[in-house]
Amino acid sequence: MQPSSSFPRAGILLVGNELLRGEIPDRNGAFMGGELTSMGFQVERIVTVPDGIEAIACVTRDLHLSHDLLVVMGGLGPTGDDLTTEAIAQALSIPLEFHEESWQRIVMIYASRGRTPPEVNRKQALIPQGAEVLPNPQGTAPGYLFQHEGHWIAVLPGPPRENQAIFGESLKNRLREIFPTAFPRRQRILRIFGLTESQVAERIEELARKSSVEFRYLFRFPEILVLLSAHPSEEKVLDETARKAHALLEPHVYTEGEKTLPEVVGLILKERHLKVVAVESCTGGLGAKLLTDIPGSSAWFERGFVVYTNDAKEEVLGVPKEILQEFGAVSEETALAMLKGGLEHSRADVGFAITGVAGPTGGTREKPVGTVCIAVGDRKRGKVKTYHFSWDREYNRLISVWTALHRLRLWILSSM
Amino acid sequence: MQPSSSFPRAGILLVGNELLRGEIPDRNGAFMGGELTSMGFQVERIVTVPDGIEAIACVTRDLHLSHDLLVVMGGLGPTGDDLTTEAIAQALSIPLEFHEESWQRIVMIYASRGRTPPEVNRKQALIPQGAEVLPNPQGTAPGYLFQHEGHWIAVLPGPPRENQAIFGESLKNRLREIFPTAFPRRQRILRIFGLTESQVAERIEELARKSSVEFRYLFRFPEILVLLSAHPSEEKVLDETARKAHALLEPHVYTEGEKTLPEVVGLILKERHLKVVAVESCTGGLGAKLLTDIPGSSAWFERGFVVYTNDAKEEVLGVPKEILQEFGAVSEETALAMLKGGLEHSRADVGFAITGVAGPTGGTREKPVGTVCIAVGDRKRGKVKTYHFSWDREYNRLISVWTALHRLRLWILSSM
Questions:
Q1: pLDDT tens for chain A, residues 1 to 416
Q2: Which residues of A touch B297 (CB under 8 A)?
Q3: Closest in A30, A43, A312 to B303, CB measured
């Protein structure tokens, strides 16, 4: 059996001039594509069209007929630019109805801010006849869902916060009821840091070739994801294959599943009751930022120092002037002294220190752009290494922090 | 005259299962849409299709016929999944040719890493007959450009780094030669922070209603962009309107044009030879990160303190224990003491301090999630204010930093 034959087919229609003009990068396509895929849909098209009745109507007809489910996102606002509902009604010849309950919700939202809604908002309560309203917990425009000629159409507002809330609170469950046979492939994800794509491929290509499991590689800077998937009936083989691939890729698999490297490091720190200090020069707070992005990080993130200048390294951390003069700010000696100073000037148990030349300028012949020295360690000892990255400033900074976190993870696992 | 009648029409075709499955958010559509729009194209469709010959061929035929220019991105790699060139050849019945020069470039790239390319890479040198090769300065897969039945097709590899380099180095100029009549609308951008969408609308709706200039609003958290555009013949009216709108929105317009708020603050600091210190609790280094994202920030970013714990606030900055005990870590008194300590423990001229409850937990009845105290000032005095944000952790952190930067900007402009 072709597994794909059991997948319901889905299309996504995104409405908005701002997306076509590149004024904002789209986030809705990836969100909805990911959600529908994980529910077992095969997402076959994402189409972006301008805020125009004709374009919306024409693509709606197209995608509606060729897919079991069409999700339309955007163009439900109150202004003259917002034409999605009108266009869908025209495309499928369905009359619109005023939905009193939705209007009352809009009135309430305005009332809670001490205002009454302008007349233009009334159009947000217009819904195709017979459609099921999907309430919007985050805004005024409700979504809706209906069946037409055997195919389903869901329509959601454009702001990610709003459509994600509607999806989570009602649409997802409704789709589960409507498409109970959706048959998601089982998937395992290995997340890898510190190998190139071809190094990953070399290590596991033999395993992949001999296996019935599907192997895919995804380079999502600075990490690589190996996605293993199989039909649900092959779940045991899938687990066995994931175990083998994991072993072949060690010590670079930092987790299986959805967690990011900062989250994995946070979890390890939390489990072992350790606190961390971030000492940063060229990464300028990015390391502290990535760690404190995580809710609850105050349990294990102690403090951070952004010692961008030489003065700061000396004055804040006590890095000896002689080290800075003899070896320079970008040196293994300075990185180790920064780490030592950071631990001495904090209550942390472990830490990392990063000093380097992120670019685009500031490089020298001896220490070109991309030279980064990274130290990790605890109060007793530290380990330092020099790297030569060759990306742009943004990527050099990001890979520097990931390298520090990955080495800190290995340090803790092997020595604490 | 309808200005749009003079615009050449463009479509964009994105190839990749990973985009449909939401495994990576697309960046190519926004990039190419923005570039083509700024060159005067009217971008009418962005379509994402799976890695399959049939889908790519079918949409290529469709978009090719209905647009003056079709840009196809992705699916030019060496693996079995990469089918774009084959699909285009099939769709338009054009034979493929082996392009020796491109193959030699691939061989050279491998040679520089001490390797020889595998046989599979040969297919990256296959190009539709008669197409013009667009060399890839960042990778092995060249792009190419050709005309077919009076319409143009450009094909580029999927990695943003590669297609952006090809676009910048050759495609952009070629398109300018091919479409010399492209007639971009003139545009002015006002970037606004600290007003809601409806507050922006209220201030300028009368101006907008009476003007021949097109007004559009773009909410790109945490800022709002007002985009004014007009036909090139109306450039004087456009400038005059932008000037009026700017005045009506003061002091919230932090710049006109493309610069972000951190860049604008950096520029002000640089011009006035001032250095800044970032003192952060709940934003955990995000402020330092956003400032040091900017190349050359070492000229005006002095150092940063991530004082996440009370211990850190006391020990690193000398925030008096009594203040922390009497008023709490999230208080205007603590924010001011953090700012004072940060300036005393640095060589900076100005600074900001942020302490708050970013969420999702950690709130109390008195100080709920979203309560943030922000101080800005110099060595002589500081100003502090309490905010109540109601977003999630990520947005609360981001808007806190932007608020600090915006207030720092106003502080410097008004008092230094």
A1: 233 446 899 999 999 998 999 887 898 999 999 999 888 899 999 999 999 999 999 999 999 999 999 999 999 988 778 899 999 999 999 999 999 999 999 999 888 878 888 888 899 999 999 999 999 998 889 999 999 999 999 999 999 989 999 999 999 999 999 998 766 778 899 999 999 877 898 899 999 999 999 888 887 889 999 989 898 899 999 999 999 999 999 999 999 988 999 999 999 999 999 999 999 999 999 999 999 999 999 999 999 999 999 999 999 999 999 999 999 999 999 999 999 999 999 999 999 999 999 988 889 999 999 999 999 999 999 999 999 998 889 989 999 999 999 999 999 999 87
A2: 284, 308
A3: A312
B191, B227 Cβ separation under 8 angstroms: no
Place of tokens 């493929």: B96
Q: How near does any CA of chain A get to the CA of B310, in Å?
A: 10
How many Å apart are CA A405 and CA A400, to the nearest integer? 9
**d(C-alpha A171, C-alpha A169), whole Å:** 7
Give the closest-approach CA distance of A280 to chain B in angstroms.
9
Contact indicator for A360, A368 with CB cutoff of 8 Å: no
Residue in B218, B291, B394 nearest the CB of A18: B218
Contact between B352 and B360 under an 8 Å Cβ cutoff? The reply is no
B265 contact A CB<8A: no
Question: Tell me, what amino acid is at B359?
Answer: G
Please check whether residue A174 touches B, CB under 8 A.
no
| Contact between B284 and A296 using a beta-carbon 8 Å cutoff | no
Residue in chain A closest to B201 (alpha carbons) equals A79
CA distance B160 to B276: 34
Q: Find chain B residues with C-beta within 8 A of A306's C-beta.
A: 278, 285, 288, 292, 303-306
Can you tell me the distance from the alpha carbon of A277 to that of A50, in angstroms, rounded to the nearest whole number? 49
- Pairing mode of beta strands B96-98, B126-128: antiparallel
Structure tokens at A107: 């009135």
Cα dihedral sign, B279-B282-B288-B294: negative
Distance, CA of A68 to CA of A8 (rounded, Å): 6
**A247 contact B CB<8A:** no
Out of B20, B33, B301, the one facing A44 most closely (by C-beta) is: B20
DSSP 3-state assignment of B341?
helix
Phi, psi of B315 (to 5 degrees): -75, -40
Interface contact B51, partner A, CB < 8 A: no
Contact between A308 and B302 using a beta-carbon 8 Å cutoff: yes
DSSP annotation string for B284-325 = TTHHHHHHHTSTTGGGTEEEEEE--SHHHHHHHH---HHHHH
Closest CA to B234 of B195, B278, B273, B183: B183
Nearest residue in B to A293, CA atom: B394
Residue in B28, B35, B41, B48 to test binding to A, most A beta-carbons within 10 Å: B48
Please tell me which of the candidates A220, A303, A393 has its beta carbon nearest to residue B316: A303
C-alpha–C-alpha distance, residues B318 and B30, integer Å: 47
CA end-to-end distance (rounded Å), chain A:
50
List Cβ neighbours of B360 (8 Å cut-off, separation of 6 or more): A295, B369, B392, B393
Does the beta-carbon distance from A30 to B43 stay under 8 Å? no
Task: Provide the ipTM.
Answer: 0.81
* Per-window interface: B 79-118 vs A, CB < 8 A: none
Contacts of B46 (CB under 8 A, 6+ apart): A19, A20, A47, A48, B11, B12, B14, B29, B33
Search chain B and give the residue with CA nearest A12: B20
Interface check for A312 against chain B (CB to CB < 8 A): the answer is yes
